[in-house]
Q: What sequence folds into this?
């Protein structure tokens, strides 16, 4: 049973900092140097100074991006730029956004959730993690003792009972509002009504939680907790370090969008459609669909209409041809990925990498391809028009059912299987890891 709690968040005093839109930022891992500078320039109070402080040539152990983040945080707390709420609250968050011409609103709630090692309770990962980002975030945890960004968690709720309770609680009250650089509007309502909090936490408590985004931050939270225990700073099970800030969204929420992650494939010799067809035809039924941008869009329409994980789309940049490739049999995947479950082996992204990128193309062309990752058809169009790759692959997105089945089996999905859009903003609420 997941242990979820209302908490007293630290939040910006908008009377001091101005518009909320000026002080929020996307997660650190999607911020490039250009966006980092824009966020620095937008406001002296932008959360970028906490989550991704600039590196300097003069950095050393006593003065670096982490110590500067900590110093900024101390200043903001002392000057009441950030103020702690007086009542324990849950924080309802709605994100309104557009994808491929359609508008959505994703609804969730932010709470503190008790940390538990993966495999020991009701919280499940679905992605592999890397040592570098975990070390980076751990340094920031150690310096600031604060959750600066939420982990994104998903829970099953076929009837959306939790959201119904939260909708009643926010009623017609006006939210705090911020719009990010991608045009996504986030609306925030603090909820401190005890009846609602009790009802929502009781509904959420028995449900498993699947981490959608923020695996590195979650694992870093576990490491930080262990360090604090060893240092004697965790007095009991209620100490703040036992918990992590999490945004929870129903798997049945109509606004929950998983974008596909298409592959832009390079490192190949010039490749035309006839060569690709010959390389794939042993394991796939290959069909030519069309040319250029219209061919790409027609291929994607076919993939969406099929609705399965069995069809991949390929565009050969050299001649502008677009093809579909349908897997003939599951036997090759069962042989080459025998250590994985049938659900894992059925994923289109697994088929693409195990069969096409790791086997068929190297066998046919004598080279191992490399990938870049994009999510929108317009990004594929730009890359193929500019000839930034030799081959483009359109991949159907994994579904929530895949996430639940594979993660619930304590198995990690292949890299870049899911992209939950939009990302969660940093700067809406902060959770202290110090026990007050």
A:
């Amino acid at each position: 049973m997941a242990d979820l709690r209302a908490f007293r968040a630290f939040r910006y005093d908008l009377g001091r900092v101005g518009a909320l839109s000026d002080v929020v930022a996307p997660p650190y891992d999607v911020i490039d140097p250009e966006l980092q500078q824009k966020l620095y320039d937008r406001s002296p109070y932008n959360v970028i100074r906490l989550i991704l402080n600039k590196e300097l040539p003069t950095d050393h152990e006593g003065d670096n991006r982490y110590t500067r983040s900590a110093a900024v945080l101390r200043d903001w707390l002392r000057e009441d730029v950030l103020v702690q709420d007086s009542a324990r609250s849950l924080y309802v968050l709605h994100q309104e956004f557009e994808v491929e011409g359609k508008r959505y609103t994703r609804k969730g709630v932010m709470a503190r959730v008790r940390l538990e090692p993966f495999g020991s309770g009701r919280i499940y990962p679905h992605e592999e993690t890397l040592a570098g980002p975990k070390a980076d975030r751990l340094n920031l945890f150690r310096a600031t003792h604060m959750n600066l960004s939420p982990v994104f968690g998903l829970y099953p709720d076929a009837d959306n009972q939790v959201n119904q309770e939260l909708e009643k609680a926010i009623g017609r009250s006006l939210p705090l509002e911020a719009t990010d650089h991608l045009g996504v509007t986030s609306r925030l309502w603090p909820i401190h009504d005890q009846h609602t909090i009790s009802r929502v936490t009781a509904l959420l408590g028995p449900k498993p939680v699947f981490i959608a985004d923020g695996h590195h931050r979650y694992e870093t939270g576990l490491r930080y907790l262990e360090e604090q225990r060893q240092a004697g700073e965790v007095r009991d099970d209620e100490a703040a370090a036992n918990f992590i800030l999490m945004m929870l969204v129903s798997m049945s929420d109509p606004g929950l969008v998983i974008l596909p992650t298409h592959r832009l494939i390079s490192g190949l010799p010039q490749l035309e459609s006839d060569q690709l067809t010959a390389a794939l035809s042993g394991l796939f039924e290959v069909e030519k669909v069309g040319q250029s941008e219209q061919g790409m869009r027609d291929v994607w329409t076919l993939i969406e209409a099929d609705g399965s994980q069995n069809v991949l789309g390929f565009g050969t940049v050299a001649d502008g041809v677009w093809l579909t490739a349908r897997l003939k049999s599951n036997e090759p995947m069962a042989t080459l990925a025998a250590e994985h479950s049938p659900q894992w082996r059925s994923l289109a992204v697994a088929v693409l990498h195990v069969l096409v990128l790791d086997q068929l193309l190297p066998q046919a062309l004598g080279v191992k391809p490399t990938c870049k990752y994009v999510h929108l058809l317009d990004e594929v169009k730009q890359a193929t028009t500019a000839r930034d790759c030799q081959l483009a692959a359109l991949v159907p997105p994994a579904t929530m059912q895949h996430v639940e089945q594979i993660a619930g089996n304590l198995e990690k999905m292949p890299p870049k299987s899911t992209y939950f859009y939009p990302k969660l903003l940093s700067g809406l609420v902060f959770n202290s890891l110090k026990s007050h």
